């Protein structure tokens, strides 16, 4: 697996992340902090469906795709489950709204259910493209959805200006992206009920795991409803969404590039090749995630004020750093440290670790929120994510070793430190200044890596130049 292939996935995720940041900025400004809080709670409700039901089914597809004898039947069976769950939950949300049993603002729950259903189908299509190593199709699905969200979302805010309408617009964006992707690739014909025990044996523990993960990642929104005004919930949610749509995308892009190949090597019984790929994955991951975390901790506060307005100019001083660290730790855990446990199908073991970290996170949030406000929620989230990462690290060592050369780690540390010093020393204002700071930081980091010859960078560049006609 080459660095070029990893960068292809990262580039797709980065472009879609930039588009998502643009849409987030437009949504926060268009809705305002209080209405954005209702939108964020709708997203939290949708995330419950996508996290607990859709993600385990997609993960099952990724894990079982390597068995070519089961591939067609697994795809059909899982697609039927995705469509069935999505349709059933939409009906349930409509009934709850009709009975007045929804805990959200009017019509937010049905709109959130529709978004969860359409997002689930889109995620299934993306996972299938990734498992089949269809890089172009993978990028197409993500980028079309990101562009459609901006166009439909902005139009909806101007016409209707409400959280339910915006959630419906995002559902339409998912439908546009996935339109035609099923044809010739998916079919409900071949759905095999006899696969249910095999699928349930892997997916059911993951559903428990994902529910606990949902409490860890989204429980802060529900606690904030009871401890802070809606405007503060809106500010916290906007910042948390910004970090998730940037930093976690780096981790997920790397996972998309490496996980299918590790699964295929493991499924073929090639344990040494799986270990080699996993070790190589670690090298690439640390070289991208560490500078991203350091750089974003410097840039989040000025970026929030510029993107979201002056209401975000007086943030608690430690809030941006806490949210950045929580996003990075959570992304590394989910897309790197959990990989060995998923390969070994130790999903109940994984669930136990997430239960521990989720409980710790919610307890700490409940204690810290009345004392530290929205920063307290970020503190509890970071502590829970860190505990979960340590647990996965310890439990997964018996499956795959976490190997990273000391010279490579030292090189990344030095380059990140030099980049961080540059960001601290030079702080121009405005959008142009923010963009220039970012580009300069990337250039500094790349040059230091080149000077220190990280991972044989000079030889790789020289070889690429020799192959160029």
From TrEMBL:
InterPro entries in UniProt: Poly_Biosynth_Transport, Polysacc_synth
Subcellular localization(s) per the UniProt record: Cell membrane
Chief localization: membrane
Transmembrane regions: 7-27, 39-57, 78-101, 107-126, 138-159, 165-183, 195-216, 236-260, 281-307, 319-336, 348-368, 374-396, 408-426, 432-452
Assigned keywords, A-Z: Cell membrane, Membrane, Transmembrane, Transmembrane helix
Protein topology in the membrane: Multi-pass membrane protein
Pfam families to which the protein is assigned, alphabetical: Polysacc_synt
Source species, domain of life: Bacteria
Protein's name in the database: Lipopolysaccharide biosynthesis protein
């Amino acid at each position: 697996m080459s660095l070029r292939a990893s960068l292809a996935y990262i580039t797709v995720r980065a472009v879609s992340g930039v588009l998502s940041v643009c849409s987030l900025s437009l949504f926060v400004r268009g809705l305002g902090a209080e209405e954005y809080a209702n939108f964020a709670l709708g997203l939290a409700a949708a995330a419950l469906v996508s996290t607990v039901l859709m993600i385990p089914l997609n993960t099952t597809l990724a894990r079982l795709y390597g068995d070519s004898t089961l591939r067609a039947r697994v795809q059909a069976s899982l697609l039927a489950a995705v469509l069935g769950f999505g349709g059933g939950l939409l009906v349930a949300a409509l009934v709850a709204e009709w009975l007045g049993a929804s805990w959200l603002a009017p019509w937010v729950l049905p709109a959130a259910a529709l978004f969860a259903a359409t997002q689930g189908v889109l995620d299934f299509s993306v996972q299938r493209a990734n498992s089949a190593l269809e890089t172009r199709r993978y990028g197409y699905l993500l980028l079309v959805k990101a562009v459609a969200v901006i166009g439909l979302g902005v139009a909806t805010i101007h016409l209707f200006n409400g959280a339910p309408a915006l959630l419906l617009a995002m559902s339409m964006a998912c439908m546009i992206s996935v339109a035609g992707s099923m044809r010739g690739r998916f079919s409900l014909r071949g759905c095999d009920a006899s696969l249910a025990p095999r699928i349930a044996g892997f997916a059911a523990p993951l559903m428990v795991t994902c529910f606990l993960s949902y409490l860890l990642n989204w429980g802060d929104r529900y606690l904030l409803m009871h401890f802070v005004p809606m405007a503060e919930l809106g500010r916290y949610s906007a910042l948390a969404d910004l970090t998730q749509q940037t930093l976690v995308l780096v981790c997920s892009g790397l996972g998309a590039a490496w996980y299918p190949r590790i699964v295929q090597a493991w499924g073929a019984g090639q344990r040494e090749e799986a270990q080699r790929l996993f070790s190589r994955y670690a090298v690439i991951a640390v070289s991208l995630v560490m500078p991203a975390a350091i750089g974003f901790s410097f840039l989040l506060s000025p970026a929030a004020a510029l993107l979201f307005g002056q209401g975000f100019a007086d943030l608690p001083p430690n809030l941006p750093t806490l949210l950045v660290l929580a996003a990075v730790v959570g992304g590394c855990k989910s897309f790197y440290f959990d990989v060995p446990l998923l390969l070994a199908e130790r999903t109940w073991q994984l669930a136990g670790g997430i239960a521990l970290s989720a409980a710790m996170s919610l307890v700490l949030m409940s204690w810290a929120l009345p004392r530290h406000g929205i920063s307290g929620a970020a503190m509890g989230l970071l502590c829970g994510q860190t505990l979960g990462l340590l647990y996965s690290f310890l439990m997964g060592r018996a499956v795959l070793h976490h190997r990273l050369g000391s010279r490579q780690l030292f090189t990344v540390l030095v380059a990140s430190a030099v980049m961080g010093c540059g960001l601290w020393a030079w702080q121009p204002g405005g959008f142009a200044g923010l963009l220039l700071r970012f580009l300069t930081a990337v250039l500094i980091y790349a040059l230091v890596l080149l000077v220190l010859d990280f991972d044989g960078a000079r030889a790789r560049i020289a070889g690429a130049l020799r192959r160029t006609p």
